[in-house]
């Protein structure tokens, strides 16, 4: 019951970056909250952030070997990256896409997501709470798959 939680570019600045859009919590706060909920759900998590597309792709490849699910906030790569989509399409378990903000309320270029064509579910506009909601959904989907 291992889940990868992957974060794309600029999310290292969470808490400092446009707090009126993304809130005041840092990515470390989000990770701590995820670990708390993961314990409750009896999930192990690998939590990563990178500003580099290839690192996210490499983590998806790693997840193929060891993980039952992926929660991913691809950040700006959501709207640009066929490569991350292709990587996720090689992963057999459930994938939940997370956006802290409601991307549909924002600029038109944020309305299209390459990743959504693969994701089993999409969470947007729930703030950083979206991460723990994604973990709850992944735990359920993993249980359903193995029961
Ligand atoms: C984001 C939304 C994206 O459009 C943006 O590029 C991000 C963060 C979100 O979490 O709301 O960096 O994925």
From TrEMBL:
Coiled coil: none annotated. It catalyses: 3-dehydroquinate = 3-dehydroshikimate + H2O. Its EC number is 4.2.1.10. HAMAP family: AroQ. Substrate binds at residues 73, 79, 86, 100-101, 110. Keywords: Amino-acid biosynthesis, Aromatic amino acid biosynthesis, Lyase. GO terms for biological process: amino acid biosynthetic process; aromatic amino acid family biosynthetic process; chorismate biosynthetic process; quinate catabolic process. Homododecamer. The active site is at 22 (proton acceptor), 99 (proton donor). This is 3-dehydroquinate dehydratase. Catalyzes a trans-dehydration via an enolate intermediate. GO terms for molecular function: 3-dehydroquinate dehydratase activity. It comes from the Bacteria. Pathway: Metabolic intermediate biosynthesis; chorismate biosynthesis; chorismate from D-erythrose 4-phosphate and phosphoenolpyruvate: step 3/7. It comes from Microvirga aerilata. Belongs to the type-II 3-dehydroquinase family. The record marks 17 as: Transition state stabilizer.
């Amino acid at each position: 019951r291992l889940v990868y939680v992957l974060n794309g570019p600029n999310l290292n600045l969470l808490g400092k970056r446009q707090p009126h859009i993304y809130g005041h919590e840092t990515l470390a706060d989000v990770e701590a909250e995820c670990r708390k909920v993961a314990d409750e759900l009896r999930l192990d998590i690998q939590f990563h952030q990178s500003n580099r597309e290839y690192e996210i792709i490499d983590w998806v490849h790693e997840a193929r070997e060891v993980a039952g699910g992926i929660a991913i906030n691809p950040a700006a790569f959501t709207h640009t990256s066929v490569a991350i989509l292709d990587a996720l399409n090689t992963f057999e378990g459930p994938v939940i896409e997370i956006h802290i903000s409601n991307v549909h309320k924002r600029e038109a270029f944020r309305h299209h997501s390459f990743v959504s064509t693969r994701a089993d579910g999409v969470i947007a506009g729930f703030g950083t709470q979206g991460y723990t909601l994604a973990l709850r959904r992944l735990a359920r989907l993993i249980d359903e798959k193995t029961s």
